[in-house]
Amino acid sequence: MDVKEACSQIELFQMISEKSTAALEACGSLRRIPKGTHLFWDKEMNQTLYIVVTGFVSLYKINSQGERKTVFLLGKGDVVNEEVLQNMPASINCEAFESSLVLCFSKMDFLAIMRQDFSLTKAMFDSLALKNRRLYRQLKNTSNSLHGEKRVAAKLWRLSKDYGVSASDGTLINMELSVTYLADMLGSRRETVSRHLKHLNEQGLIRSQNGKIVIPDRDALSVFFKSP
Description:
With 228 residues, the chain is an alpha+beta fold. Helices cover 42% and strands 24% of the residues. It has 8 helices and 11 strands. It has helices spanning 3-8, 18-27, 107-116, 118-140, 148-163, 179-186, 190-202, 218-226, and strands at 29-33, 38-40, 48-54, 57-62, 68-74, 93-96, 100-106, 164-167, 170-173, 207-209, 212-215. The strands form 3 sheets. A 4-stranded antiparallel beta sheet has the order 2-6-4-5. A hairpin with a 2-residue loop joins strand 8 and strand 9 (170-173).
């Protein structure tokens, strides 16, 4: 895949001018990120904007107790680090959740194109707004408002919405989602999440399949975690 083909697959670029598209193709580059490799670190000065083409990357923070908390899991078409457009250090760590391909743009080049194309500028605002909405949902689903199995169910429902593909027996969350990583996303202990997953399996709300998770009925899972 070359830069032109990669740009054509990014929804963010579908409404911008042909001139802007050509400029992005001219200044962009592609980078393959092996699983577990970091794109950037928290508090690191960075001058590159990243957009996921294939695979998934994880944005996470380390709390004062040294525990890892995954904030976002980003996939195809997602802008990784809009905040790079500020002249400030990164505010989060970014690691490849699986082998991934990302588009790379110099911050200054990207800003220059944004100045000439309001559609691109608005698309970046929309990307940030979507992240804000996702953060609001995460706050709603903290341990103070949802507990135990319902938090796990809510997270799996969301992942099935964002990254699910149709399967013969339901909706497959199309990624290798380990118990450890799910615990990181929820800020919970691995053992606790494992127990909740077992209970959800026993209730028929989820099903494990070759290391991945299938949701037989997303509506039923939604009713479960929204119930009093």
